Amino acid sequence: MRRRKALILFSWAFLPCFLALAFRGPSAPGGEESRLRSKLIRWDEAQATQDSWGEFRRYFAGEGYGVKDVLAAFAVVKPGEALHKAHRHAEEEFLVITEGSGTWSIDGKDVPLKKGDVLYVEPWVSHGCTNTSKEPMTFFVARWSGKGVPAPPEPKQ
């Protein structure tokens, strides 16, 4: 039990370090000059797109020092909606509910979600969230792949 608590505390201590290293500014394919750089992007400066389900704000995307395929974004999901159906991909991902409530879909199981919940998703595990409340639900997503670490092969369904 102590080992598990220590691991959880270490994981939470590591997350800000990862975010500080990985999300460093605009990126494009290429060398040193294209790597994400330290930068503050405010809500009204993030690249925003509107859809029938709500709004998506992309803050950072690209490549950091030790990670690639980086995405750092917020989604505001309307009541009764989902950004997309449960899906899976090769990248690891954290989802943090910052406002509202709804339902997580995790590997085929539905679990209630609420403000303050954090979900970590391994590569290829099916996941998603739906706003089942009468208020908007907001979540932050951080997704990435490690450089020099091959993604695990996609499992056969």
Q: What characteristics describe this protein?
A:
13% helix; globular; 6-stranded antiparallel sheet; mainly beta; Jelly Rolls; 157 residues; 3-stranded antiparallel sheet
Structure description:
- The protein is mainly beta.
- The chain contains one helix and nine strands.
- It has one domain (2-146): Sandwich (Jelly Rolls), CATH 2.60.120.10.
- The protein is 13% helix and 40% strand.
- The strands form two sheets. A six-stranded antiparallel beta sheet has the order 1-2-3-9-4-7, with no helix packed on it.
- A hairpin with a 2-residue loop joins strand 5 and strand 6 (109-114).
- The longest helix has 21 residues, at 2-22.
- It is globular and about 45 Å long.
- Residues 3-29 have low confidence and may be disordered.
Q: Can you lay out the helices and strands and say which pair or pack?
A:
Elements: H1 2-22, E1 47-51, E2 54-62, E3 67-77, E4 92-99, E5 101-106, E6 109-114, E7 118-121, E8 127-130, E9 137-146
Antiparallel strand pairs: 1-2, 2-3, 3-9, 4-7, 4-9, 5-6, 5-8
- The CATH class is Mainly Beta
The CATH architecture designation is Sandwich
Spans where pLDDT lies below 50 across 5 or more residues: 3-29
What is the number of helices? 1
Q: How big is the Rg?
A: 16 Å
Number of domains in the coordinates?
A: 1
Annotated CATH homologous superfamily: Jelly Rolls
Q: Average pLDDT, to the nearest integer?
A: 85
Q: What shape does the CA trace take?
A: globular
Taking the alpha carbons of the first and last residues, their distance comes to 34 Å
Structural class: mainly beta
Total strand segments: 9
State the major sheet.
6 strands, antiparallel
SSE pattern: HEEEEEEEEE
Order the strands across the largest sheet as they lie in space: 1-2-3-9-4-7
Strand content: 35-45%
Helix content: 10-25%
CATH topology: Jelly Rolls
